[in-house]
Design brief:
By secondary structure, the protein is of the alpha/beta class. It has two domains: about 5-155, 3-Layer(aba) Sandwich (Rossmann fold); about 190-430 and about 445-490, 2-Layer Sandwich (Dihydrodipicolinate Reductase, domain 2). It is built from 14 helices and 15 strands.
């Protein structure tokens, strides 16, 4: 853990990138505004192009919302810029000397400075950057040192398949201990995602119901209404929805929904349970991929004038998906036999993220709530965890309509997180995650074995798509909720996809 009285230096490689201005510096200002950073702090942006401190501060000014301005004015004098190429060993050595000089100029003992190196870089630069930092002695620290600690944050993607993830993890572990590596996924910083654990494990009403005994299915949807802009189409064409969203965001949410109660809320105990879920995900055979996975991409429609295939930067023979839907299985004692429906896509009718637990129907319809005695029509109970843009919880159930007869009507009990904040927005995800990184709390970061377990599952799907008899890529009109083929993943009485309402 960090000691508040010692200096913390946040060193951002890739400081000229969009992420730094849009997310990282506002997040630090937000923590300062909230009183969460009661410690001396310096921020050092690093990029190859020379730039004066004042010029970089001026570039950051417009990204600060009015509410952040007072905190930003306090942080601004402690924001610096240094030109360096992380692939040049000499530049990194010189950077180390300049970091020491900044600390000394502020009156601090360089032997008691904590440093967070944030790699806002292309993933193929991670390994070399860490190697040069290590060679320059900038990663050296004793385990558990509360003052002169060293940590490295890496952004997704963590590889593009299992072999590349294994290679990246091995390269990082050559120079860093496990406690020094923080894989960041901003979804885990969302307040509503964090509250999944609190909701489950602090409420005796719900935890006994949270298993195959009472839950019939689980749906996790991350829907985006925007398409892929031309400026990003070239990058996206090397990724796709499966790698870009499922491998990290959806599987991380799934692991929180499905994990066993940890013995404590420490980072190690929570991540131990999450990785057990990911290891229990049943991998697919090519035959199962054809039956239980749907991939598609959008055509023009709604407010999107060009289909994905027509975007500049998309290869003529591209088979990249902008939508994926999966019927997954978790083979463990709690969840065996319960389908987990995962869905993510771009260019859809609306933007929302939610988790839906659908509970089993009663064994007998005593009050005639079903249609013509068909219990398939009676699905009275579901629990919706709303992550974005709404943040809240909705519990659905049936009530009898007043009057003669037994006419049943759906009803909802709801809770909005805005009720706890007076209508104010919850803190941005990066604000919480950066604070945890500085304080040395790894709970909301992804461990390397989680990354590898997720890739094993995802790679089994990719292998099925590469099979000679794989189903063709489906299409859907932008502005819809995806291809009709995805509806077939629900079988029998299991219902249909939710609509975010």
């Amino acid at each position: 853990m960090s000691t508040p009285s010692t200096l913390t230096q946040v060193v951002v490689f890739g400081a000229s990138g969009d992420l730094t201005a849009r997310k990282l510096l506002p997040a630090l200002a937000g923590n300062l505004r909230a009183g969460a950073l009661e410690r001396p702090l310096q921020v050092i942006g690093v990029a190859r192009r020379p730039k004066a401190d004042a010029a970089w501060r001026d570039e950051l000014d417009p990204w600060m919302e009015p509410a952040l301005r007072p905190a930003w004015e306090r942080l601004r004098p402690h924001v610096h810029y240094r030109a360096a190429d992380s692939l040049e060993a000499g530049d990194v050595v010189q950077l180390g000397l300049e970091l020491d000089a900044l600390a000394r100029d502020a009156g601090h003992d360089v032997r008691r400075v904590g440093r967070l190196f944030y790699l806002a870089l292309k993933p193929d630069l991670f390994a070399a950057t860490v190697r040069h930092l290590s060679t320059a002695g900038l990663l050296d620290c004793a385990p558990g040192d509360p003052a002169a600690w060293r940590r490295v944050v890496v952004e997704k993607p963590f590889g593009h398949d299992l072999p590349s993830a294994l290679a990246l993890n091995a390269a990082l572990r050559e120079h860093l201990r496990e406690d020094q590596i923080l894989h960041i996924d901003h979804y885990l910083g969302k307040e509503t995602v964090q509250n999944i654990l609190a909701f489950r494990f602090q409420n005796a009403i719900f935890e006994p119901l949270w298993s195959r005994v009472h839950v019939e299915s689980v749906e996790i949807t991350v829907a985006e209404s925007i398409g892929v802009p031309s400026g990003r189409a070239g990058y996206y064409d090397t990724s796709g929805a499966l790698r870009d969203m499922v491998q990290n965001h959806l599987l991380q949410v799934l692991s929180l929904v499905a994990m066993e109660p940890p013995s404590s809320m420490s980072g190690g105990d929570v991540r131990d349970e999450k990785v057990q879920v990911l290891r229990s995900l049943a991998p697919f055979t090519p035959e199962q991929v054809a039956r239980d996975v749907v991939r598609a991409r959008y055509t023009a429609g709604g407010n999107i004038e060009r289909g994905y295939a027509d975007e500049a930067g998309v290869a003529a023979d591209s088979s990249t998906e902008t939508y994926v839907a999966i019927r997954a299985s978790i083979r463990n004692w709690r969840w065996n036999g319960v389908p987990f429906f995962l869905r993510s896509g771009k260019g859809l009718a609306k933007r929302y993220t939610e988790v839906v637990l659908r509970f089993r129907a009663p064994p007998v319809d005593l009050l005639g709530g079903a249609v013509d005695g068909e219990l398939c029509a009676l699905r009275p109970n579901d629990l919706r965890l709303l992550i974005q843009p709404e943040e809240g919880i909705r519990l659905g159930f049936l009530v009898k309509q007043p009057g003669p007869g037994a006419i049943m009507r759906p009803a909802t009990l709801g809770f909005d997180y805005g009720a706890l904040t007076g209508g104010a927005d919850t803190a941005p995800a990066y604000q919480r995650l950066l604070l945890d990184a500085i304080e040395g709390n790894p709970t909301l970061f992804i461990r390397d074995d989680e990354v590898e377990a997720a890739w094993r599952f995802v790679d089994s799907i990719r292998a099925g798509w590469a099979a000679p008899d794989a189903p063709p890529l489906a299409t859907y009109a932008a502005g819809s909720m995806g291809p009709a083929e995805a509806d077939a993943l629900f079988r029998g009485c299991e219902g249909i996809w939710g609509d975010g309402e």
